[in-house]
């Protein structure tokens, strides 16, 4: 009888503890989802004149003599933060929207991106190779990645500018909320201590599977990239 009572007590304790932990997890995930929503909703969007966005979160700006500058947009910089390394193709390399030659690396985790138009690399931003944080701090300025000589003007991918570009970024932010919400346990510690607002670089606190999922959903330009 005593043994049965002890067993019953242990089972009761484990059941109550499980219920408490489950309720605590649900509460924490609800708080996290609210903070993610607040943080991304407050994200200040901007898109300079002359900058066009591609659907893989790269941007293109036409320069004199037909050259085009390429970089990472503000949304992507906010999501990945200051990655450890950015790998770029060398001057003279031929790029196409079907080949992902731009790589953002953070340890074993990475994202591969293609150039938004076909062309030949004529310049590489050496500053970004030394200081990858520039891509986050000044995405449309000093954080540019490459300059290319487009082979066919601006053809090769859908480009968005002005109000259309801003509206698309807003849609991407909403999708990012859903994406992160589905992976709440991965990003719980990617929030600030004072109020739980997500910090920049939330992906840096996620695992390799989450990076692969993010690439599939947000940074593909072509079915083959």
Your description of this structure?
The chain has 225 residues and is α+β, with helices and mostly antiparallel strands. It has a single domain (34-225), classed as RNA polymerase II/Efflux pump adaptor protein, barrel-sandwich hybrid domain (OB fold (Dihydrolipoamide Acetyltransferase, E2P)). It has seven helices and ten strands. Strands 5-8-9-3-2-1-10 form a seven-stranded antiparallel sheet. It has a three-stranded antiparallel sheet with strand order 4-6-7. α1 (2-41) runs antiparallel to α5 (162-181). The radius of gyration is 22 Å and the shape is elongated. The model is unreliable at 188-198 (pLDDT under 50).
SSE diagram, text form:
Layout: H1 2-41, E1 51-54, E2 58-62, E3 68-72, H2 74-80, E4 85-87, E5 94-95, E6 100-106, E7 109-114, E8 119-124, H3 126-130, H4 134-137, E9 146-150, E10 159-160, H5 162-181, H6 184-187, H7 208-218
Antiparallel strand pairs: 1-2, 1-10, 2-3, 3-9, 4-6, 5-8, 6-7, 8-9
Helix pairs in contact: 1-5
- Strand order of the main beta sheet, please? 5-8-9-3-2-1-10
Number of helices: 7
**Distance linking N and C termini:** 67 Å
Helix content: 40-55%
| Rg, Cα atoms, Å | 22 Å
Shape, principal axes of CA atoms: elongated
Low-confidence stretches: 188-198
Most strands sheet: 7 strands, antiparallel
Strand count: 10
Helix and strand pattern: HEEEHEEEEEHHEEHHH
CATH homologous superfamily, by name? RNA polymerase II/Efflux pump adaptor protein, barrel-sandwich hybrid domain
Q: Report the sheet-strand fraction.
A: 15-25%
């Amino acid at each position: 009888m005593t043994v049965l009572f002890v067993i019953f007590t242990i089972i009761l304790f484990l059941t109550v503890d499980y219920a408490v932990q489950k309720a605590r997890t649900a509460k924490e995930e609800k708080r996290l989802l609210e903070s993610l929503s607040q943080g991304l909703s407050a994200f200040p969007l901007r898109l300079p004149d002359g900058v066009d966005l591609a659907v893989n979160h790269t941007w293109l700006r036409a320069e004199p003599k037909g050259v085009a500058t390429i970089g990472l947009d503000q949304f992507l910089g906010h999501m990945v933060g200051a990655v450890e390394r950015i790998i770029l193709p060398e001057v003279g390399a031929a790029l196409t929207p079907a080949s992902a030659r731009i790589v953002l690396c953070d340890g074993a985790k990475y994202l591969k991106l293609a150039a938004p138009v076909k062309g030949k690399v004529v310049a590489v931003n050496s500053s970004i190779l030394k200081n990858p944080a520039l891509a986050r701090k000044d995405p449309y300025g000093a954080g540019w990645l490459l300059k290319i000589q487009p082979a066919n003007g601006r053809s090769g991918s859908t480009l968005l500018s002005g109000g259309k570009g801003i509206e698309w970024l807003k849609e991407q932010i909403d999708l990012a909320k859903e994406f992160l919400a589905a992976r709440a346990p991965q990003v719980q510690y990617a929030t600030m201590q004072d109020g739980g607002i997500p910090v920049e670089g939330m992906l840096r606190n996620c695992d390799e599977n989450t990076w692969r999922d993010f690439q599939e959903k947000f940074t593909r330009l072509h079915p083959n990239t």
